[in-house]
């Protein structure tokens, strides 16, 4: 049995300890904002925060996370008001959108450590792959998010339309997730 905190809620997974975090989140906890991309830790679509650090969830076994705190895109901010999310919208970063949750999580982790990253810092921290090639917009959004967080910039507008933020950021109740019957 593996116990750790996901999006502020204690979770006990009754899954094989070697189960990748990605699949525990997506299949057992129904937190589908974390995407499967390559399964090899190369693309970054599955990036989440573990104890505040950006990690590729396809490469982390849940058995190694005992006592850890995991944050997914669903809980980055309950109202989509995180500076990175605001800047992503303001800079029109999304194109196909598939890589976005992983990119946003990687950028948020970078900015939590470095409030004024250089282009070299951004390049070193954001190794996620965007198949649409929106890298210039991603870099502008990260710079804008840093300015918002520092109070040097205010972005107009609210959360993007679509899913109600309360629904997107629903709290995962404390639960036990069992292995499916064989």
Automatic annotation (TrEMBL):
Alphabetical list of Gene3D superfamilies matching this protein: 3.10.20.30, [2Fe-2S]-binding domain
Listed InterPro entries: 2Fe-2S-bd (IPR002888), 2Fe-2S-bd_dom_sf (IPR036884), 2Fe-2S_ferredoxin-like_sf (IPR036010), 2Fe-2S_ferredoxin-type (IPR001041), 2Fe2S_fd_BS (IPR006058), Beta-grasp_dom_sf (IPR012675), Diverse_Oxidoreductases (IPR051452)
GO function terms (MF aspect): 2 iron, 2 sulfur cluster binding; isoquinoline 1-oxidoreductase activity; metal ion binding
All copies of domain 2Fe-2S ferredoxin-type, residue ranges: 1-76
Keywords for this protein: 2Fe-2S, Iron, Iron-sulfur, Metal-binding, Oxidoreductase
Protein origin, superkingdom: Bacteria
Pfam families for this protein: Fer2, Fer2_2
Catalytic activity, EC: 1.3.99.16
PANTHER family (UniProt xref): BLR6218 PROTEIN, OXIDOREDUCTASE WITH IRON-SULFUR SUBUNIT
Name of the protein described by the UniProt record: Isoquinoline 1-oxidoreductase alpha subunit
Organism, as annotated: Sphingomonas prati
């Amino acid at each position: 049995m593996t116990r750790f905190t996901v999006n502020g809620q204690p979770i006990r997974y009754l899954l094989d300890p070697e189960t990748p975090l990605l699949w525990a989140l997506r299949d057992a906890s129904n937190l589908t904002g974390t995407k499967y991309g390559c399964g090899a830790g190369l693309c970054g679509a599955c990036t989440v925060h573990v104890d505040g650090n950006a990690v590729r969830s396809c490469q982390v076994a849940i058995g190694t996370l005992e006592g850890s705190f995991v944050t997914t895109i669903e809980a980055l901010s309950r109202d989509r008001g995180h500076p990175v999310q605001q800047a992503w919208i303001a800079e029109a970063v999304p194109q196909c959108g598939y890589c976005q949750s992983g990119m946003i999580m990687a950028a948020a982790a970078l900015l939590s450590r470095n409030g004024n990253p250089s282009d070299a810092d951004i390049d070193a921290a954001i190794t996620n792959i965007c198949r649409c090639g929106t890298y210039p917009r991603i870099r502008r959004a990260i710079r804008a998010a840093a300015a918002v967080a520092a109070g040097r910039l205010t972005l107009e507008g609210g959360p993007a339309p679509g899913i109600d933020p309360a629904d997107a950021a629903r709290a995962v109740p404390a639960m036990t997730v069992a292995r499916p019957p064989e």
